[in-house]
Amino acid sequence: MPEPARPMQVKNPLNRQPATGLTERAAWKALAGHYQAIRGLHLRQLFAEDARRGERLSVEAAGIYLDYSKNRITDETIRLLVRLAEECGLRERIAAMFLGERINVTEKRAVLHTALRAPETEQVVVDGVDVVPQVHAVLKRMAAFSLRVRIGEWRGHTGKRIRNVISIGIGGSDLGPVMAYEALRHYSQRDMTFRFVSNVDGTDFEEATRDLDPAETLFIICSKTFTTLETLTNAHAARAWSLRRLGDERSVRRHFVAVSTNTEAVAKFGIDTANMFGFWDWVGGRYSMDSAIGLSTMIAIGPEHFRAMLAGFHAMDQHFRSAPFRQNIPILMGMLTVWNCNFFDAQTVAVLPYEQYLNRFPAYLQQLTMESNGKHVTLDGARVAYQTGPVYWGEPGTNGQHSFYQLIHQGTGLVPCDFIGFCQALNPIGHHHDLLMSNLFAQTEALAFGKTEDEVRAEGTPGWLAPHRAFEGNRPSNTLLAERLTPETLGLLVALYEHSVFTQGTIWNIDSYDQWGVELGKALAQRTAPELESADEPQLDHDSSTNALIRRYRRLRNART
Ligand code: G6Q
Fold it and tell me: Of the chain's two ends, which shows fewer C-beta atoms within 10 Å, N or C?
């Protein structure tokens, strides 16, 4: 059995922490004591004692308003969380990231997604080279190409206008583009079709292409490495689909472009490297939607809107980098997640956008948060003695209210929620938007304050039914409110979560930028694929369960008529 890829254990040159772990820190211990003192407090009481709590425990920056008053906290909690962030060296870690130090220690890489949205006037030096001009050179090439496609100047092999764009990628090379396209659909070129293929399940490709004309279809193959099995398998399927109709190898250069760091592999595939858009090893996959990986986004919404999105990212970067911790939205949200998970033992965070266009935002955040902070060892390779990354999940409101909110309101576990809403509708129809937003506000109220058995009885509910109809309340939530969903707001929101993830990872002392957890399954699948495909009965030496599953699969697959 081939040895699975193993995480490198390296000393972190930036680890300014003492040898004692997180739970030994003075601020952590103070928080543990403080938790015991306030865990019994109810949000009803906290709000009753402070008429201005809602305004006081809120903060606004760059057009995003965060109300965090409905968390189970006092001023002392925030003071101690800020102290913990300082003790963990968050300020220095933020500076190190923005300066391009190699804070992804296990891959020995800089982490510079913030350079992707740096204005041309800024300098970000990596290995002695200012990367900002490179970033803008790629953006300019993307803009020129996008415009040509949008105005119909870039034509297909037969001279037909490109009407369909299919982006093929997976993970970080897919989730961002899909989410951004859905989120900004309102701003998209409506006479074009945009689709995304990621799964190696043939259905994904088939359903994305079945009603399209290859002569009008452009494929963007998005893969940083250009070696990813799913993406290359789908890219080859796309090539065959396209050539079946267009018949001429030369058509590939009109119908395929690539986003990658691997020029050689792109050329080998047959894509003209003049139509390749590059990025760099200091951009992690799940942090790449604002790099060339966003080419489909730019074609959909146009370069102007794309630039506005980058400006939103940059505004949040500036806020994160410079605002005091107490007024810093990503830091507050990150620290509150630590508080809810490590002290109140919350295992998950629900993200609940009250905006239909953000329907893929929770899925996008799942990768951003869980691939980043689902780690079991510290930067030094020692086993952590505390919970790290929670499960992020969610659905757009109000749909979730009629399904899983039951558990959030009356289940036995604590599920902190992030509500996201906008004051202006993009599609104002009747009073839909007021109804939508009244639901958001009502949910945060119901979660925080609940309804006691006495109140339920006073409404005439019989005693036996009262416990079923009572809501304990005291369930924490954040509310993020912005004026309107625009490309800029989307940039602000994504950067907010990126930096919240970094804040959490810094406290937990883990590498938020590697992803060794995806390696083992990949390696094993590569070994298993030939066993499934071989014409002769293969010699299997997996465990008895896997052997039996493979044999059954082969038998039934080959029985197909
Ligand atoms: C993200 C991960 C991962 C990656 C995909 C696609 O941070 O690294 O999701 O984006 O595996 O990789 P390629 O872009 O190399 O195909």
Answer: C
